[in-house]
Amino acid sequence: MSENIKKVPAVVVKRLPRYYRYLGELMKQGIKRISSNALSVKMNVTASQIRQDFNYFGGFGQQGYGYNVEHLHSEIGEILGLNDGDTTVIVGAGNLGRALASHNTFEKRGFKLIGIFDNDESIIGTEINGIEVMSVDDLEDFLHANRVDIGILTVPKAAVVETAERLVKCGVKGLMNFSYTELNFDKKVAVENVHLSDPLMTLSYKIKQK
Amino acid sequence: MSENIKKVPAVVVKRLPRYYRYLGELMKQGIKRISSNALSVKMNVTASQIRQDFNYFGGFGQQGYGYNVEHLHSEIGEILGLNDGDTTVIVGAGNLGRALASHNTFEKRGFKLIGIFDNDESIIGTEINGIEVMSVDDLEDFLHANRVDIGILTVPKAAVVETAERLVKCGVKGLMNFSYTELNFDKKVAVENVHLSDPLMTLSYKIKQK
DNA sequence: TAGATTGTTAATCGATTAACAATC
DNA sequence: TAGATTGTTAATCGATTAACAATC
């Protein structure tokens, strides 16, 4: 029941989306409550870890009963900030940028895509998923006119640092970087570097071991 | 100098692609050798960890000198199996499937995309990145005629389990799953579940803490 | 109430870091 | 050779698991 005083380890935070996913699934199945033990079997982790993880945020269960699935799901969503209506822009309307824009997964988790930018004249003005592609030249204007929380970077590697800095300068607080470099900002800016080829490489490694 | 006897921790394997990336970058910059200490500064990890990690595979350095960048890079590539010419197919030619097919990152790491499949008649027969989209009905025929190592699953959630099983039944050894479920196969099949919304959610969390 | 299951403390395990002898 | 830096062992730290008292 302790307040959120001690810092939550990054490893715990990284597990939250997975809990969120499983609990969402349970809800869909109409399951109202679940014990840490039952959940541990489904998720293939220990019940101890589940209870420890949840207790970083102050215990959402009830002795003798377990956890209310819907309540726990919504609490984790709240912890992750999925109800904050975070706004995003995608910079780089290439294949990946377009795919992410068209994907509805992000919206489903409560993120609002409000702008797509590119520097290709032939793309600017076209629509992706109902949003008009704007020129990167208008990036600052847009960012000053609209609060943007998260920037999704699907620009070529060579452009990523400059683009990131422009976003940050205009108040963007988080960056999701898909290019083959690693962005590193000071503590003020949160960064997630996503390298799609990494899991493919570890797969390749695992296959060799078989 | 020990042989690859004790099992390499998963956490070490996961770091290999990152080393590979940094070493590739150093090569491009024309840097021939580097000490664990210099690399640790660049990568923002400890020199100790770097040396420990490499020693799981048997020490690639030289006392008093450091590591030969090109040699280390190629050794890590070898460990990851990037020279094995692993073949892949993409099942699901939606936005994400198309983006991955068009992306040249996978090829650059030595993976060969040899087939794309979908069930949409209007897509079948069209070309993506020079590869014709085939019908999923022909999946088994294709897999029997061609050795496929890794299957990349960009099908809707509802179809993923069945599709995965079909691939595995035909000898596919690894699966990269992009759908919003988690695949779990027995030890024989390697699986990497990639959830693109996870990093976005942890970003959202981190932003809240600032 | 008795049974179940949490919240939480204590024990264990594994991963990271420090230290240093080996050696290029 | 002297200096640098690895490979590797030992110490520390943190995360996971086990255990159990609290309590619904």
List keywords for this structure.
homodimer, 210 residues, alpha/beta, Arc Repressor Mutant, subunit A, Rossmann fold, two-stranded antiparallel sheet, 9 helices, 9 strands, disordered N terminus, DNA-binding
Order of helices and strands of chain A: HEHHEHEHHEEEHEHEEH
Q: How far apart are the termini of chain A?
A: 45 Å
Shape of chain A: globular
CATH topology tier name of the largest domain in chain A: Rossmann fold
Helical stretch count of chain A? Answer: 9
Name the CATH superfamily assignment of the largest domain in chain A.
NAD(P)-binding Rossmann-like Domain
Largest sheet of chain A: 7 strands, mixed
The average pLDDT value of chain A, as a whole number, equals: 95
> At CATH's second level, what is the architecture of the largest domain in chain A?
3-Layer(aba) Sandwich
CATH class categorisation of the largest domain in chain A: Alpha Beta
Oligomer: homodimer
Q: State the largest interface.
A: A-B, 60 and 60 residues
Radius of gyration of chain A: 20 Å
Content of β-strand of chain A: 15-25%
Helicity range of chain A: 40-55%
Count up the domains of chain A.
2
Uncertain regions spanning at least 5 consecutive residues of chain A: 1-5
What is the number of strand segments of chain A?
Answer: 9
Brief account:
The structure is a homodimer of 210-residue chains. In chain A, 44% of the residues lie in helices and 17% in strands. By secondary structure, chain A is of the alpha/beta class.
